[in-house]
Amino acid sequence: MTKQNVNTKLRRWRGVYFFIFVAGSIALLLSGASMSKFFSLKSFLDVESFYTHLTPSEDTNRNNQNEVLATVQIVITKIQKELEKLREIHQNPSSSSSQSVLKQGAFLADILGLLESLHSEEQNGGFVVHPLMKEKKRSDEPANYFLREEIRKYVRIRPNRLGKQNFMGANATFTSIGHACFSMKEDLEEYMDYDIGEICNDDWKLAQKLMVHGCDPLPRRRCFSRAPKLYNKPFPIKESMWKLPDDRNVRWSQYRCKNFTCLASNNNARKGFFKCADCFNLTDHEMPRWIRLEGDSISNQTSEADFFIDDVLGIKLGEIRIGLDFSVGTGTFAARMKEFNVTIVSATINLGAPFSEMIALRGLVPLYLTINQRLPFFDNTLDLIHTTRFLDGWIDFVLLDFILYDWDRVLRPGGLLWIDSFFCLKEDLYFYLEAFKMLRYKKHKWIVVPKIDKDDKEVFFSAVLEKPSRPFR
Ligand SMILES: *[C@@H]1O[C@H](CO)[C@@H](O)[C@H](O)[C@H]1NC(C)=O
Ligand SMILES: *[C@@H]1O[C@H](CO)[C@@H](O)[C@H](O)[C@H]1NC(C)=O
Ligand SMILES: *[C@@H]1O[C@H](CO)[C@@H](O)[C@H](O)[C@H]1NC(C)=O
Ligand SMILES: *[C@@H]1O[C@H](CO)[C@@H](O)[C@H](O)[C@H]1NC(C)=O
Ligand SMILES: *[C@@H]1O[C@H](CO)[C@@H](O)[C@H](O)[C@H]1NC(C)=O
């Protein structure tokens, strides 16, 4: 056996070894590719009945599938061509192997790139089928509807990272936005137009407009909300309740008034809101509400409230501890109730004035909530719901029905519904009273008084009602 002979044999062996190595890796790749493609194809095919009903149009779906198939076809052709070349190399072992190794490297990189792009497409472009989706049920994938990437990212279903159910029993996180967001697409995209990690636009008013018109909940954002330039710490709790807060603790942009003195003044025209025009006048207007003042007769307080807090709490002595005030106001009801050791959260939006900030600066809890949403409380939990100047004669009867049933839901058996100075047109009164009677609550207080300041067309209605226990259902 000559040296040359050994060398050629070795080279041949090397060639064969090289061929086996390359062929083996290609086989591996192929199987990997076909496996992963099979996987996604299989999942495509398996869930096709889901999938077709999920996507906005079946055409898009077919397009996606065609794209995948086309890419797989490209991969297969490339691999076949490369195999041909490899066979040639094998038949001609004298050709430089280092060159072919380079070529193999480029080839592998090419294949990998294709597979990776497919993979990431699958992850980002595709979406997770909602696990609770019933077959044959059509639902638009919200991410496809919007152009702005931040909305698309936000509404996409987020699978749990550990691949199993989380402590809440769901294997993904499902964020939600109000369905009216879709009809206000342009406003919403403006709202979601920001740089991640930067300061948000000064657009709380746009946000509130979206919410009031049914884009509620709004998507979350990944920017820092604007704050007042110089936030001074709030007054201590004893002081803060009955004192106008520091003007610097509020952002006054988008309001007609630029300070609390302006809001508390009697010049209504300049304030930019009409409901509870005197709500910021704490000393003269808010102080006397709902409580018996020293030496006062009931007669000169009736225009403010029909019932006093101590009378209402007396109905259920010591039983009323937590509740909700669904009103337009600055939290005075909650402030007074606090003196009776009752915790009240005040639902409000910023209708022409910084109501939420005012309530918070007084040391009370503002719940920023429109009337569009189901209350964020569980069934049978609250002792009291109080409402004034919010639900009035403007409200649609069917909507009122939905709201009252929702309030009934969160009130506990024996809880009180305090309707405070509901006003409406005289001719509507009958229908509104029927709506309240529908609840079949026990009437503790129930009065109708004519409204004095209008030309005798409107009436006030006030009541304190108790939710019955419904033991037989
Ligand atoms: C999530 O759970 C549903 C059943 O609730 C199941 O059908 C689905 O495959 C799960 N998805 C993942 C990604 O585990
Ligand atoms: C409050 O704002 C009004 C105009 O909105 C202005 O005339 C007044 O001087 C301001 N008062 C204080 C104390 O800043
Ligand atoms: C509150 O109202 C009273 C009576 O209407 C008025 O005299 C007083 O100036 C008002 N307070 C403020 C801060 O404007
Ligand atoms: C209530 O009426 C009494 C007498 O009728 C009067 O002296 C008192 O000033 C009135 N209180 C208020 C707050 O108007
Ligand atoms: C509220 O609670 C405090 C402290 O427990 C107590 O001193 C006070 O009398 C209570 N107030 C009422 C109105 O029950």
Automatic annotation (TrEMBL):
Where is it mainly found? membrane
Question: Any idea which UniProt keywords this protein has?
Answer: Glycoprotein, Membrane, Methyltransferase, Signal-anchor, Transferase, Transmembrane, Transmembrane helix
Q: What membrane topology was assigned to this protein in its record?
A: Single-pass membrane protein; Single-pass type II membrane protein
Compartments reported by the entry: Endomembrane system; Membrane
Q: Which GO terms describe its biological process?
A: methylation
Could you give one GO CC term from the UniProt record? membrane
Q: Which InterPro entries match?
A: Prob_Methyltransferase (IPR053223), Put_SAM_MeTrfase (IPR004159), SAM-dependent_MTases_sf (IPR029063)
Extract the Gene3D superfamilies matched here.
Answer: Vaccinia Virus protein VP39
Can you tell me where the transmembrane regions are?
Answer: 16-35
What name does UniProt use for this protein?
Answer: Methyltransferase type 11 domain-containing protein
Q: Name one GO molecular function term.
A: methyltransferase activity
Task: State the family named in the UniProt similarity comment for this chain.
Answer: Belongs to the methyltransferase superfamily.
